[in-house]
Amino acid sequence: MRALVIDRTGALSLRDRHKPDATRKECVIRVTAAGICGTDLELLRGYAGFEGIPGHEFVGIVEDAPAEDRRWIGRRVVGEITVGCGQCAACRTAGRGHCDVRTVVGIRSRDGAFAEYLSLPASNLHALPESLPDDTAVFVEPTAAACRVVEQVEIDSHTRTAVVGAGRLGLLVAQVLRDCGVRPLVVGRGERGRSIATSLGFDTATTDASALSRAFDVVVDATGNPHGFAACARLVRPRGTIVLKSTVHGETQVKLANLVVDEITVVGSRCGPFDRAIELLDSGRVDVTPLVESIYPLEQFREAFRTAEHGLKVIFAPAQLD
Amino acid sequence: MRALVIDRTGALSLRDRHKPDATRKECVIRVTAAGICGTDLELLRGYAGFEGIPGHEFVGIVEDAPAEDRRWIGRRVVGEITVGCGQCAACRTAGRGHCDVRTVVGIRSRDGAFAEYLSLPASNLHALPESLPDDTAVFVEPTAAACRVVEQVEIDSHTRTAVVGAGRLGLLVAQVLRDCGVRPLVVGRGERGRSIATSLGFDTATTDASALSRAFDVVVDATGNPHGFAACARLVRPRGTIVLKSTVHGETQVKLANLVVDEITVVGSRCGPFDRAIELLDSGRVDVTPLVESIYPLEQFREAFRTAEHGLKVIFAPAQLD
């Protein structure tokens, strides 16, 4: 099969790879859509030291399955990306998503979705309603990640919220927050992101709007860049909460004393509930129409990644034309 | 009166200063004991850009008071260190301790306790029981700060806790945690701190005990140095909590992506409840006897600060001999 592969030097190329089969007790999924995420861009900068096929946001059709999971064959699915052992201390105390020996689709010791096929255990899969087209369903994984924020932080109608980063993830987080009854301010550097936020009904501001400093109870960093944290730290009120969604390669300079003096809480936030995400997307309460940048075949991966670097959601259609 | 003063260049010297009076609607307190805290050492490194008289852990006797507060005269007291306006957004949402225009005894725009006298509003004062001697009561402020941890983070008998830093503050935090029914591990670099922790009944470890990595639900940074955060990040389990108590000057390199991937919560923690601290010290549930390093007159401030740099609690007795 055709697949994009990150090699030891960190370079990305299109290669021929063995198609996965169902002998590993996993379902084999033909990938019909796969989105490029900020984390994929960071992988190419060296984040997580990943080698293999990247891509963890996908939609596909189950083509083969182990004997006990054959009912999945033919179903259109999305998939949770972490496979844990279920045995270790981390699995027991923090859940399989935090397993010490976990593999993660396209991020850690497991091939991902920028290929014609991938494999995953049936327990990771969620069947999609027919009403949800591929170019919407490909947002299930990042929308679930956005939903994780409101699992971790209590939001009520009085909570003053801001989302820093008017990109792929930020515009999902803002919509998930709105679904909880608040009206987050969307703070972004780029005019285009802010204009899409406006079209989605949000108030917007640039990151240097100093009048907003120390004004928000909850501020979410969805910038995908190392400067996001400092912007959030300016916006959050004393005793407020910063939620981190960006996985940025490398280290960031942080004035830890400011967190102490202002008693700020910082919450790292990763993967979230797929069922809730599917429902939000299917009902239209999260609208991803303005977030689709363009759709590419795998062959045009260089242009696709270039576009994703400064644009919104770029989608591969690896096996659409088979 | 005699007072230690930090000047514009950051240098500390003993000077003659005007004694405060009660015309500012504040009580005038003769300082009988004042402790050197890690924050005082950081002030001398430039933290907070403070100029004036440092010192914020004190015991004293009210010598003068405004007309409406004359009942305080003659009482032996400790004092909460922050004076807020009560009007601004931060006062309303986060409490006076976080006032935008606050003054803080010996830290921010207000003279502190390394002097024969200081002044504070009566509303900041707590009367001391006679049973609590000065060299114990001088620990009320840092013990209150230690108590703040358990106001912010839920601790039950199953919570696995570690305190990083076996110094002045760490040994208070460990005892406050123990009072909540847990047995924290005390992690420290210095043999002396660990040995005092052992004498107080705690298990101890050195910071490089890699077997302990990712093993604790709650890890408190009480190191007072910029390397404390990384040590805490190694010890905390996925989805666990790091509580920051150190106010360190400057910036620290933090791998923010690790907080995201492991969904760590970081909680900045500052001042705490004086009543609870007085009760813990008076009942002996927090034992500070092994924490007293030595007691100095103001004149020996150079030796006092040198001792505090590597030792436990150094106490000034500014007006003891009057």
Question: How would you describe this structure to a colleague?
Answer:
- The structure is a homodimer of 322-residue chains.
- Chain A contains 10 helices and 18 strands.
- By secondary structure, the first copy, chain A, is of the alpha/beta class.
- In chain A, strands 3, 4, 5, 8, 9, 17 and 18 form a 7-stranded mixed β-sheet that branches.
- In chain A, strand 13, helix 7 and strand 14 form a beta-alpha-beta unit.
- Chain A is globular.
- The mean pLDDT of chain A is 94.
- At the A-B interface, helix 2, strand 14, strand 15, helix 8 and strand 16 of A face helix 2, strand 14, strand 15, helix 8 and strand 16 of B.
- The class by helix and strand makeup of chain A works out as alpha/beta
What is the overall pLDDT average of chain A? 94
Alpha-carbon distance between the two ends of chain A: 11 Å
List low-confidence stretches of chain A: none
Number of helices of chain A: 10
Q: Which chain pair has the greatest contact? A: A-B, 46 and 46 residues
Using the CA coordinates, give the radius of gyration of chain A. Answer: 19 Å
Secondary-structure element string of chain A: EEEHEEEHEEEHHEHEHEEHEEHEHEHE
Shape, principal axes of CA atoms of chain A = globular
Fraction of residues in helix of chain A: 25-40%
According to DSSP, the number of beta strands of chain A is 18
Percentage beta strand of chain A: 25-35%
> What is the subunit organization of this protein?
homodimer
Task: Characterize the biggest β-sheet of chain A.
Answer: 7 strands, mixed
